[in-house]
Known about the structure:
Blueprint: E1 9-14, E2 21-25, E3 30-36, E4 42-47, E5 52-56, E6 58-59, E7 62-63, E8 68-72, E9 83-88, E10 91-94, E11 97-103, E12 118-122, H1 136-139, E13 148-154, E14 161-165, H2 173-186
Antiparallel strand pairs: 1-2, 1-14, 2-3, 3-4, 4-5, 5-8, 6-7, 8-9, 9-10, 10-11, 11-12, 12-13, 13-14
Amino acid sequence: xxxxxxxxxxxxxxxxxxxxxxxxxxxxxxxxxxxxxxxxxxxxxxxxxxxxxxxxxxxxxxxxxxxxxxxxxxxxxxxxxxxxxxxxxxxxxxxxxxxxxxxxxxxxxxxxxxxxxxxxxxxxxxxxxxxxxxxxxxxxxxxxxxxxxxxxxxxxxxxxxxxxxxxxxxxxxxxxxxxxxxxxxxx
Length: 187
């Protein structure tokens, strides 16, 4: 199966430190920046139009590796669901579907995983219904799930962290880009 080219949005994140990063579209236009949060465990994502999110590694009361919670600061204080995106152990759910960062998609040979970009895949046959079902016994088996490529992630160096997302993730592409950058740059 040949992998089709992505048709969505591309982002590049550059910064000397994770809390001083700027986010650009592929065409070079700066659209947002990442700043220090109010504590040492969080960051602010500020879009050029003033929209703000808090990104924290505290996901549902736990600090977990390869996890981040994105909280929308522009929602009203009485709004119950401020979570715009939760990535837990590389997994996230959006519009009822599961996705995985750094997944090896169907149609790619395993030797291609050793170098080059990492992929974001939609896990169509994922046997769980909620992120909270994933415990420490299950997380080790996650790599065997192969999905459909809907994005790719590459680089964390001087040239920047590059993220491309397909149209189905375009609405949250900025959040995925900032979240993946912080997950992989702040370990």
